[in-house]
Amino acid sequence: MYYAAKMKLEFLAEGSPECPLIRLYAFSQSEATRLGELVRDLAIGDREYMPLHNEAWVESVGECALNLRRGDGNHGVRESHPGVFECLLNAEGWRSVDELVEPFRESDTSGFQWLIHDGKIALLISQSGQW
């Protein structure tokens, strides 16, 4: 299945027991590959910071902004300002996210994967947007 539009980035404050969460959805295999490349760059230290919402292949829904940052610990996702979120993980945390994204890069995988599910705000990847 191919999506002509950009990967959607959206914050859901409520509506499900898993909320609040940020979901990445409606993406192509190519966009999942690009996400994996960014995550790998964070894991190996080629990048320390990446504003995901600024990527040309990402469309922010409802002005959601997600900054990916490499740090000393695994702090997960937190809201730094209204509508602005930061995902702070160490190298091992970003390697784990890379492994979880891998099936979406290799094929048009249906289903979903919780990239981060501990902490106050979860991070979900799902081609359909469902979980």
List the helices and strands and how they pair.
Blueprint: E1 7-12, E2 21-25, H1 29-44, E3 49-51, E4 58-61, E5 65-70, E6 76-81, E7 84-89, H2 91-106, E8 112-116, E9 122-126
Parallel strand pairs: 1-4, 2-9, 5-7
Antiparallel strand pairs: 1-2, 3-5, 6-7, 8-9
Question: Gist?
Answer:
The mean pLDDT is 93. With 131 residues, this protein is an alpha/beta fold.
> Can you tell me the residue ranges where pLDDT is under 50 for at least 5 consecutive residues?
none
User: How does the overall form come out from the CA principal axes?
Assistant: globular
Beta-strand portion reads 35-45%
- What's the level 1 CATH class? Alpha Beta
Largest sheet: 5 strands, mixed
The helix fraction, in percent, is 10-25%
Task: Give an overview in words.
- Helix 1 packs antiparallel against helix 2.
- The protein has a single domain, classed as Gyrase A, domain 2 (2-Layer Sandwich), CATH 3.30.1360.
- The mean pLDDT is 93.
- The chain is built from 2 helices and 9 strands.
- It starts with 6 loop residues before the first strand and ends in a 5-residue tail after the last strand.
- The strands form 2 sheets. It has a 5-stranded mixed beta sheet with strand order 4-1-2-9-8. It has a 4-stranded mixed beta sheet with strand order 3-5-7-6.
- With 131 residues, it is of the alpha/beta class.
